[in-house]
């Protein structure tokens, strides 16, 4: 197992170098000139713009800029915002718990709802319940999270006036208010993920229930819930583990839009403001962090998959 983990870690090194270069170069080539924006916009004198470019190192070759940025990033220095002059790393550290709480709540909903619905559909294969689940998950996968967020606001905030649609309350300040402000963002992000998990669990469990060892357990008179819980679900859970890992990474990205809709002061609203103002250090820092999280989560999924299925380690 240790060898398996070491191999995966070593494979991450070239991957992270490629990812970091893509993040840096793609952001640099975004339309617009940050030096012009900082110097005063289109009315700024060319000499002033060139002075700002020189101070920021934007006139250096791309490889030199990347090497300087990567060296600082490895040491935890992601630069400072071009406009607020605050440390990007400090802003990320202060805002990440907010974004993480949104994503982890959505994952919890998707896990509980998706696993439950997927198991029920598999056990009732071909019946009305199964067809209803297939239809419902198709709707869940088709609905964009931003549209679902707007529908939730209209129903629960505007019409019923049950929940607040804007703002954020820290958990340490008031746990109940914290949850009441986040329940709609959780649902907006979690329902689509739950539909994906339910589909995977249903398909995997149907395949497993048709295996010889499951039939043998049933023929021995083992209760249905024990057959599923003790024998079938362990193998059927492997595809769900993979889907959950990928979904968590995508949910972090999905919070960008959802946070802006619900006015949540997380990384999403932070990077959207940076994009509108072309604040390169902020965009690069947040996107790099998201990419690192995505890679790390995939590593964790690989390890969990290997724990559940030892054949993966052997291969």
Keywords:
13 helices; single chain; 315 residues; mainly alpha
Describe this structure in words.
The protein is mainly α and 315 residues long. The protein is 79% helix and 0% strand. It is built from 13 helices and no strands. Helix 10 packs antiparallel against helix 12. The protein is globular and about 85 Å long.
Mean pLDDT: 80
Distance linking N and C termini: 12 Å
Helix content: over 70%
User: Per the principal axes of the C-alpha atoms, what is the gross shape?
Assistant: globular
What is the percentage of strand-forming residues?
A: under 5%
Rounded to an integer in angstroms, the radius of gyration calculated over CA atoms is 24 Å
Low-confidence parts, pLDDT < 50 over ≥5 residues?
none
Largest sheet geometry: none
Count of discrete alpha- or pi-helical segments spanning 4 or more residues: 13
Q: Let me know the number of strands.
A: 0
- Counting helices, strands and paired strands, the structural category is mainly alpha
